[in-house]
UniProtKB/TrEMBL annotation:
<feature type="binding site">
    <location>
        <begin position="316"/>
        <end position="318"/>
    </location>
    <ligand>
        <name>NAD(+)</name>
    </ligand>
</feature>
<dbReference type="InterPro" id="IPR000043">
    <property type="entry name" value="Adenosylhomocysteinase-like"/>
</dbReference>
<feature type="binding site">
    <location>
        <position position="203"/>
    </location>
    <ligand>
        <name>substrate</name>
    </ligand>
</feature>
<feature type="binding site">
    <location>
        <begin position="174"/>
        <end position="176"/>
    </location>
    <ligand>
        <name>NAD(+)</name>
    </ligand>
</feature>
<protein>
    <recommendedName>
        <fullName>Adenosylhomocysteinase</fullName>
        <ecNumber>3.13.2.1</ecNumber>
    </recommendedName>
</protein>
<dbReference type="InterPro" id="IPR036291">
    <property type="entry name" value="NAD(P)-bd_dom_sf"/>
</dbReference>
<keyword id="KW-0520">NAD</keyword>
<dbReference type="GO" id="GO:0006730">
    <property type="term" value="P:one-carbon metabolic process"/>
</dbReference>
<feature type="binding site">
    <location>
        <position position="207"/>
    </location>
    <ligand>
        <name>substrate</name>
    </ligand>
</feature>
<dbReference type="GO" id="GO:0071269">
    <property type="term" value="P:L-homocysteine biosynthetic process"/>
</dbReference>
<feature type="domain" description="S-adenosyl-L-homocysteine hydrolase NAD binding">
    <location>
        <begin position="208"/>
        <end position="369"/>
    </location>
</feature>
<feature type="binding site">
    <location>
        <position position="148"/>
    </location>
    <ligand>
        <name>substrate</name>
    </ligand>
</feature>
<comment type="similarity">
    <text>Belongs to the adenosylhomocysteinase family.</text>
</comment>
<dbReference type="GO" id="GO:0004013">
    <property type="term" value="F:adenosylhomocysteinase activity"/>
</dbReference>
<feature type="binding site">
    <location>
        <position position="363"/>
    </location>
    <ligand>
        <name>NAD(+)</name>
    </ligand>
</feature>
<dbReference type="GO" id="GO:0005737">
    <property type="term" value="C:cytoplasm"/>
</dbReference>
<keyword id="KW-0963">Cytoplasm</keyword>
Length: 443
């Protein structure tokens, strides 16, 4: 195992020179970085009532006592509050990034100052150091994994299978990771239980729709200083994330075009009032392209060849494979940075196609991005926390494979949120419950 890869606090040069999520903020020293990271975390926690409630419960009950949690996540202020919650519950936590451009160095340094947490996340690392940091997390010999994209689970299965016997289970946060896990499970290769947090209602209905929709559009607007009003915004994919992007773009007076490969989703988008067409046709008229599929090669050479001058290309899927940058680079006669976070590819005919955040997850990898709104991530991370607790308390109930989050846990998180907002709601009477659960009642 790669035990020699240093925690973030030993990357003092990276912190001192560098930035937090691309902001031009130089830190005098490591202590200054930690202070700024803590300030961000404290602000986020003020607006995370679910995690506040769970912090009290976990600190009092110590449900994770003796566990070692290995995490590969977007290391920023909201995630950091989940990490500290798990540590307060009794766990030793080791964490690194799940995307080379989504780490906030100051937040990573603040986490690493906690005696129960080791953070290896540093923004802007190359592929070698990215995977070396994952190896370093695995060197802690985790008993539970928490992933965003499945790189941690994959690494353990491929390189450290001897650890699987002592792993209680895991949790996966995002669509791409769940797709990979389900494929792995179908092949009989997933050797411990993992909860598909992404697929639970509290994640899909809020994080994917409102979180991805709002944060992606906000990041693109702030990065480019351009408006959506009157523009043709092409949304690649109409899953939960695509629905959110389309809905929020329409709310900002854009003309929304949806591309899809699934007939029912294409019909759904049509019935919601959006234009639906193949990407080959959308490429000719689009002004802003946002991919949300989790699949590769959504936008390729055949599309670049027909795009208008000045188009914006952004990816709101997990990995940087949805926009084929190799094809784009082959077509370009010149590449240059048009603006912070915007790479212009100039074609032979003078057209400029602009790629945001290197084609990576735009709402987390762009220079001024901050990720999903705090309130949204409070809900998703609340589900992550109760799932980890469930793995420890009821491990024997789950065999190796992908598992849905138990409905009562999802509802627990929703009820904490409603209580914090002072919102009351109805409940079924005994008679109503009996009626709904019986097949004997006729007309």
């Amino acid at each position: 195992m790669s035990e020699h890869y240093a925690p973030v606090s030993e990357h003092l040069d990276d912190i001192a020179e560098g930035t937090s999520a691309g902001h031009e903020m130089e830190f005098r020293d490591l202590e200054a970085a930690r202070k700024e990271g803590r300030r961000k975390m404290d602000w986020a926690l003020q607006h995370m009532p679910i995690l506040q409630e769970l912090r009290e419960q976990f600190e009092a009950d110590q449900p994770l006592d003796g566990e070692v949690i290995g995490m590969a996540m977007h290391v920023e202020a909201k995630t950091a509050n989940l990490v500290e919650l798990l540590a307060l519950g009794g766990a030793e936590v080791a964490i690194t990034g799940c995307n080379p451009l989504s780490t906030h160095n100051d937040v990573s340094a603040a986490l690493d100052a906690n005696d129960d947490i080791t953070s290896y996340a540093v923004r802007g690392v190359d592929d070698e150091d990215y995977y070396a940091a994952i190896d370093a997390v695995v060197s802690h010999e985790p008993t539970i994994t928490v992933d965003d994209g499945m790189d941690m689970v994959f690494t353990i299965h491929e390189e450290y299978p001897e650890l699987i016997e002592t792993i209680v289970g895991g949790a996966e946060e995002t669509t791409t990771g769940v797709h990979r896990l389900r494929a792995m499970d179908a092949d009989g290769e997933l050797k411990y239980p993992v909860f598909a947090v992404n697929d639970t209602p509290m994640k899909r209905l809020f994080d994917n729709v409102h979180g991805t929709g709002e944060s992606s559009l906000a990041t693109i607007a702030m990065t480019t200083n351009l408006s959506y009003a009157g523009k043709n915004v092409v949304v690649g994919g109409y899953g939960y994330c695509g629905k959110g992007v389309a809905k929020k773009a329409a709310g900002q007076n854009a003309n929304v075009i949806v591309t899809e490969v699934d007939s029912r989703r294409a019909l759904e988008a049509h019935m919601e009032g959006y234009e639906v067409m193949p990407m080959a046709e959308a490429a000719k008229v689009g002004d802003v392209f946002i991919t949300t599929t989790g699949n590769r090669d959504v936008i390729t050479r055949e599309h670049f060849e027909h795009m208008k001058d000045g188009v914006l290309l952004a990816n709101a899927g997990h990995f940087d494979i949805e926009i084929n940058l190799d094809d784009l680079s082959d077509l370009a006669v010149e590449e240059y940075e048009a603006r912070d976070g915007v790479e212009a590819y100039e074609m032979a005919d003078g057209r400029r196609l602009n790629v945001l955040a290197e084609g990576r997850l735009v709402n987390l990898a762009a220079p001024i991005s901050l990720g999903h709104p705090v309130e949204v991530m409070d809900q998703s991370f609340g589900v992550q926390a109760v799932v980890v607790r469930e793995l420890v308390e009821n491990a024997e109930a789950y065999d190796a494979g992908v598992h849905d989050v138990p409905d009562e846990l999802d509802r627990e998180v929703a009820e904490i949120k409603l209580a914090a907002e002072g919102i009351e709601f109805d409940s079924l009477t005994d008679e109503q419950s009996e009626y709904m659960n019986s097949w004997a009642h006729g007309t």
